[in-house]
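Continuing the series of single-chain predictions for the mutant panel. This is the parent chain; the variants come on the following pages.
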Amino acid sequence: MSLEAVYLSTGNLDFEQFRVFLEKACGILLGENKQYLVSSRLNKLMEQQGIKSLGELIQRIQAQPRSGLREQVVDAMTTNETLWFRDTYPFEVLKNKVLPEMIKASPGQRLKIWSAACSSGQEPYSLSMSIDEFERTNMGQLKSGVQIVATDLSGTMLTNCKSGEYDSLAIGRGLSPERLQRFFDVKTPGRWAIKAPIKNRVEFRSFNLLDSYASLGKFDIVFCRNVLIYFSAEVKKDILLRIHSTLKPGGYLFLGASEALNGLPDHYQMVQCSPGIIYQTK
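Parent structure:
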């Protein structure tokens, strides 16, 4: 029986249970009309486990908390493909405005960037490539280098990220031929591996945005792009406040092109970059 058929036979009660579970587990607030998304993401897993309804799935997770099923479900629901140099302007703003500004304010200081909810790794590796491009045209300015910490909730995604290998489908999502040639080595036909200097600048960690931020340390720059749209207004505000606590004074926050920081005037100020908007801590 397909999940679509299951929905018809059980009504919305199981889906409501699942919505509550997912929000508690990772903060994602599913819309009331997102049954199709749950179906497409969980159909295969539920068939493999012999589970016939979302209600049964929740019961199994509660009865067997150490089985790994909870992690598999969250993994399936939070895994998203992304693009290289998504929206372009954040990486140009980083190179042309933010890095020169920070180098001038604190020459010789090692900079630290957090890529939150890094998904399949394109964002942190795009950041690392941007750092390399900046260094090529500004020799000796980043004397102490840059560390990039990339986090995600999905263990599967992090394993893939750490390998630094991508197939032709992933490579085709926003990566120019020039950057492919400069920053990648051919691994096998149709598969490329990121070169060591770009890969070694990035440290991947497992992290839930709902957990304590104490272990992360302090950052000069945070990229938290295209993830806050999945949270309720209350959770979004809480995350933005916690991100503020990780940013050094004068640090910058980059959000997604369709995301805006409304409120929190005591914590962030908007900076117009033409194109794009970023936010600086007060």
